[in-house]
Amino acid sequence: MTRITLRRPDDMHLHLRDGAMLQAVLPESARHFARAIVMPNLVPPVVTGAEAAAYRDRITAAVPEGFAFEPLMTLYLTEATDPADVAAAAASGLVKAVKLYPAGATTNSQSGVRDFDKVRGVLERMAAIGLPLCVHGEVTDPSVDIFDREAIFIDRVLEPIRRATPGLRVVMEHITTKEGVDYVRSQGDDMAGTITTHHLIINRNHILAGGIRPHYYCLPVAKREHHRLALRAAATRGGGRFFLGTDSAPHPDHLKEHACGCAGCFTATNTMAILAHVFEEEAALDRLEAFTSLDGAAFYGFAPNQGTITLEKRDTPARWPEKIDTGAGPVTVFDPGFPVHWEVVD
Ligand code: DOR
Ligand code: ZN
Predict the structure, then answer these.
(1) In three state form, how does the secondary structure of the chain look?
(2) Cα 14 to middle of ligand 2, angstroms
(3) Number of compact structural domains in the chain
(4) What is the pLDDT of residues 220-261, one digit of tens each?
(5) CATH code of residue 242
(6) How far is the CA of 281 from the centre of ligand 2 (A)?
(7) What is the pLDDT of residue 105?
(8) In which domain, by residue range, is 235 found?
């Protein structure tokens, strides 16, 4: 197969930021994606329905002429979140999910949750109205090795929350481990997992062997090779339980190439081309559409997009800019490290 047409994809986990960065990175997603679940970890975070409405309006205003892009808004869960505000924002159709960051787990997560009992009322209300919880699944206990934080989160945090809140729909986001894959697979249809593009490509050697490569550093950090292979199996043969959430997370180069570099890989520009490459390698091009365009929408209860995109495999490798210029400084586009011959052509 050298040409494939898919329903227009959805990115079920995306960082668009705000201001100059938003202006610069939004076209990179809107070029290929019809919709995205937009992360709320701005500074300050998007906590209330009113803040989400204002952020949605800033995003919509930044969509370039000729593009159609719908931001699917989320609220940042804090210990002070008001269940009634969440319910009203969901009922109005504005908000599609609530995001749980364990406090201190990642970029701008300081306002996240420390004591899970304090968000019990919100979670119960969400279960009652069917509003999904998107989870950054890493424990923050400093004594836990960073490569074990996802697996331990499942037993220490995720299972207890789900047992205490029957019916809560949960997305374990950007899973990076075989344990994450196995957990999602073992649960019912109120549980799903998103997988990023970069975690299908890199393992921890890419970050650390032969020199430290800050543009491959993200959270959850890439793990050993057998985890990457489990993610590839889940993305291509996951039975509808795993779908694309790129976690494309722009940081300007000077904050990535830094003594204390920020976490995040910027993949919006070349995600679809790289995914076609991966799915072809896995002899699963026929399941690419489910991963990028159908299964996520089905989990969230959205109709699939009407439009399509077409990818073609070319003799010469695809080219994309090495960096995106933003008013906040250049942002390096994820380098898969091998030539990609697939390109979005329409
Ligand atoms: O690598 C990451 N970058 N992981 C996250 O969880 C947050 C994100 C960001 O906002 O930069
Ligand atoms: Zn993220």
Answers:
(1) CCEEEEECCEEEEECCCCHHHHHHHHHHHHCCCCEEEECCCCCCCCCCHHHHHHHHHHHHHHCCCCCCCEEEEEEECCCCCCHHHHHHHHHCCCEEEEEECECCCCCCCCCCECCHHHHHHHHHHHHHHCCCEEECCCCCCCCCCHHHHHHHHHHHHHHHHHHHCCCCCEEECCCCCHHHHHHHHHCCCCEEEEECCHHHCCCHHHHHCCCCCHHHCCCCCCCCHHHHHHHHHHHHHCCCCEEECCCECCCCHHHHCCCCCCCCCCCCCCHHHHHHHHHHHCCCHHHHHHHHHHHHHHHHCCCCCCCEEEEEECCCCCCCCCEECCCCCCEECCCCCCCCCEEECC
(2) 6
(3) 1
(4) 999 999 999 999 999 999 999 999 999 999 999 999 999 999
(5) 3.20.20.140
(6) 26
(7) 84
(8) 3-344
